Amino acid sequence: MTANLIRSADGAKLNDRRLPVTPDLTARLAAEYRFALGPWATNLSAQANYIGRARLTFYETLDRKMGGYATVATSAFFTSDRFTIGGRIDNLFDIKGDSFAFGNPFSIMEARQYTPLQPRTLTFSIVQSW
């Protein structure tokens, strides 16, 4: 279902009623697997997110396309007694998407503006519980 504007404040006829910054489609798929690996309680997980295409504004002259990308994250954590050791990779395939296409409002007409996704990021952690 697409988010649509029902009517304009001034009663003007609307050719395109889609709301700005609202993707036509979003989806999330997640999987998790827990098992024992010797003395370690192991947790493996993966997640994929899709953000569909969207537009910035109602105005054609200011309209910018954004979205239309998918990202994947994966993690592995191992817990034994009071210690947890793990890692996570976000944006596994280092996707270059535009998460919100509105930068500087004073120069939007002069140049393409975008807000890039977080690049591929690896996080490693060691946690001790007291």
* Strand residue percentage: 35-45%
Question: How would you spell out the order of helices and strands?
Answer: EEEEEEE
Secondary-structure content class? mainly beta
Number of strands: 7
Strands of the widest sheet, in order across it, are 1-2-5-6-7
> What is the CA–CA distance across the termini?
48 Å
Which stretches are low in confidence, meaning pLDDT under 50 for 5 or more residues running? none
Q: Could you say which overall geometry the principal axes of the C-alpha atoms support?
A: elongated
Average pLDDT, all residues: 86
Q: What's the number of structural domains?
A: 1
Q: What is the number of helical segments per DSSP (H or I, 4+ residues)?
A: 0
